[in-house]
Amino acid sequence: MEQILKQGPRRTVLLMVPAQAIPGPGRVIKRYHAPEFLGRLRDQRRAQQEFQALVHLRELGLAAPKPLEVRLQRKHWELVMEEIPGARNLEQVFAQKGARFKLAAALAKFLHQLLVLKIRHGDLHPGNVVLDEQNKLWLVDMRGVRSDAPYGERELRELLVHLCQTCRETTSARWRASVMARLRRCCNKGQLAHLVGNLDLPAIETSARTLRRKNGRKRIGRWQRESSAATRREAGWLALDRNPGDWIRTPPTSLDQALDCWNSLGHLAEHGLPAERPVLLWVGSRSVRVVSQIPTGARRMKTTEEGSPGAWGHILGSIADRGLGPGASNISQWWLTQEGAILAGDIQLLDLSRAEQVNPWRFSIEGFSPSWTPDQRREFSSAWCLAQACGPQEQQVLKESLIGDL
């Protein structure tokens, strides 16, 4: 049985599960699918390089999948590896409440092992690290891996900034601080104390936030590609399984309106904001539709008072945390879930200066005129500050600034 684990424009990762009568682990296949001849030559080189990197890292003692072969199947090069039983990447683990707190020590030891073995990864993020059934961490993607590359303070800082920015929405600043503290203790016990002596966690968090905003803006362009995760299809028909929660928009009057709506939803998705999830842009011969997904039971808002001050503080604080602000919109473009959370619809997002980001009272939402009591405004301010994925010191500064504006 074949199961797709990851799919992208250049490669697909598949899991081949053996039949019950066949003992042993399954096979993980990374399939490269460049269409042209020169592209297939590059795919062959990449597959062979990753095979050799897996062999080398396993010899060094790093937990990595066992490579089996590099082969050519139906004009596509494939790297075949042995399955890691019960493997879940850290993105999946972080999504489970309480699970990430058990990982702080394991992740710190894993990072320390990379430093000791002098292994650099150009794109280390939660999707490239998996947890097995014995709670052991494995490195599974070898693109951009370099061995025998000693770390300096600059290289370690770049590694931590990149890792922090990839998990800001799924982990708390306190959890990331605990990982840093454990990493510092591991390094101080060995010969790497010089690397962590000047480690400045607040500066790393600030740099990670800036990098996250930059990468979010850069990745918006992928929503115009036909190979994007949320696929744009040029077709005269649409086959969609109407599962609970799926919602088809009223067809826009023009393709330009559909593209604006699609790009707005893609902008929200790339920044990891609570919002509609874009599924499909359908361009037919007579009409255009944008398909997005919302939680079952969510409904459009009619008045500001339908959402609690805390819910408004969380969604607007999350937007401000990305260096953004809601553009001119209507209250009906926002959703209220059954749990009381507020989701953004196809709102326009504006880039804000730092001074504007810390002033959440400057909205352009038509119909947003809450008549809140001072206690409710303080509830809004507390939720707005908590939505800022930053350390407690910066949160306190933000809260004092907000309370001063009350």
SSE order and pairing:
Elements: E1 2-7, E2 11-16, E3 27-32, H1 37-60, E4 67-73, E5 76-82, E6 88-89, H2 90-94, H3 104-117, E7 120-121, E8 129-131, E9 137-139, E10 145-146, H4 153-166, H5 173-189, H6 193-196, H7 201-218, E11 232-234, E12 246-248, H8 255-270, E13 277-283, E14 288-293, E15 299-300, H9 309-321, E16 324-326, E17 329-330, E18 334-336, E19 342-344, E20 349-351, H10 354-357, E21 365-366, H11 374-386, H12 392-405
Parallel strand pairs: 11-13, 17-21
Antiparallel strand pairs: 1-2, 2-3, 3-5, 4-5, 6-8, 7-10, 8-9, 12-14, 13-14, 15-18, 16-20, 18-19
Helix pairs in contact: 3-5, 4-7, 9-11, 11-12
Task: Please supply descriptive tags for the structure shown above.
single chain, 5-stranded antiparallel beta sheet, Transferase(Phosphotransferase), domain 1, alpha+beta, 406 residues, 20% strand, Phosphorylase Kinase, domain 1, 4-stranded mixed beta sheet
